[in-house]
Amino acid sequence: MGLIPFLLVAVIAVGAALGLVIKKNPIHGALFLVVNLGSIAVLYQSLGAEFLAWAQVIVYAGAIMVLFVFAIMVLIPGKEETGPDPRRRTRLLATPFAVALLLLLLGFLVTAGPPAPAGTGAAATGNGVERLATILFTDYLLPFEVTSILLLAAMVGVLVLARRRTS
Amino acid sequence: MAPDSAYVILSAILFTIGVVGVVIRRNPLVVFMSIELMLNAANLALVAFGHRAGTVDAQALVLFVMAVAAAEVAVGLAIIVAIFRVRRRLSVDDLSLMRW
Questions:
Q1: Contact at 8 Å (CB) between B76 and A67?
Q2: Which residue of B6, B32, B82 is in closest CB contact with A161?
Q3: Nearest residue of B to residue A119 by CA position?
Q4: pTM tops 0.95, yes or no
Q5: What is chain B's pLDDT, residue by residue, as a tens digit (100 residues)?
Q6: Residues of A in contact with B4 (CB under 8 A)
Q7: A157, B62: Cβ pair inside 8 Å?
């Protein structure tokens, strides 16, 4: 991805994230988060992770955000944060700590990570989806199956939690 | 070409915004969405590093993170709904105890 398109998508992502944090109405926040997730999907695509890009759109922007919007509609908490914040001063303390965290992350992450492989050997074998599928069903087969058990357990747990107690 | 480190810097910025959202917002749903933001920032850094290393292992890991995030959202929203059912209002300041 060229630098100019990247900067465009990055600005959209950061702006949407700020919108999520700043806007009072949680519905607006949810829609901002959808924009953010979509722009991250574009970035995945530009990094050669085609499958992840579409999984991001379907799973996150589709399923998870529908769940969020549904929960917001059920709970109707739109007017919850309109009153003055009794702990405003404490929360404003978050700003210097956030700046410190950002500097820490930047200092750490920019120097961290794997080195670029020498030559062009690793990146040139087959397309990305095929390589991902191969590795997912060979090296990562056990974690893959455990994930399905996790999803089943989550489903049962949600049913138990959301059940209306009759007694 | 945008270098991989640009993606990592963007990921750090998004993660920090997510942390700020978790700390300063009072609505548990918005806190939850900020957590999703942090998860996505971490995923973006993973994919960028995987791209630099030329392997797809990071992408497999991101796929698992997505599955765990889906399970987490389902359970978390169920807990929020259960809390709302008992207390009739939603604010993280009210939830300072692990019981009600």
A1: no
A2: B82
A3: B54
A4: no
A5: 678 889 999 999 999 999 999 988 888 889 999 999 999 999 999 999 988 888 888 999 999 999 999 999 999 999 888 888 877 777 777 777 766 5
A6: 47, 113
A7: no
Element holding B51 (H helix, E strand) = helix B28-53
- Can you read off the two tokens belonging to residue A120? 């062009």
Element (H, E) at A11: helix A3-22
Residues of B in contact with A52 (CB under 8 A): 43, 47, 59, 62-63
Contacting residues for A69 by C-beta, under 8 A, at least 6 apart: A27, A30
ipTM: 0.89
Q: Is residue B66 within 8 Å of residue B43, measured between CB atoms? A: yes
B85/chain A closest Cα distance in angstroms: 9
